[in-house]
């Protein structure tokens, strides 16, 4: 069962991690937007551009969640309750969330510089913390899925 849940769990984790990032960091805390280092959200045209790209980001996150659910139901033909309550699924989801953080943190924050977790005098620290959280999520998820019942 663990092997069957790997892909759905990873897809769910990537999508849910994206939603958490977009909702908490972009909307609730308003620390950054998708393109805030490239196009300032302090002007109306800049805010419109950033809002559009935040929305597109959420569409991609939604597609990952949808793909995870679809893959789960395609692979697990019986006993969906066991799959949804399995430590293997949620362990892989944590791995997926961690992978999201690492990829998004390396590409968007470091390589492209489209935004940083929390701009300002300590932005490198926030960016490194985001990467460290990604690595910790991968480690915790890996351990959880390994301990799950087969």
From TrEMBL:
**Highest taxon of the lineage:** Bacteria
* Keyword terms of this UniProt record: Membrane, Transmembrane, Transmembrane helix
Instruction: Answer yes or no on keyword Transmembrane helix.
Output: yes
The protein's matches in Pfam families, at most eight in alphabetical order, are given as: DUF2243
| InterPro entries assigned to the protein according to its UniProt record, in alphabetical order | DUF2243_membrane
Q: Where are the transmembrane segments?
A: 9-29, 55-76, 83-103, 123-144
Designated name of the protein? DUF2243 domain-containing protein
Species, as recorded: Actinoplanes aureus
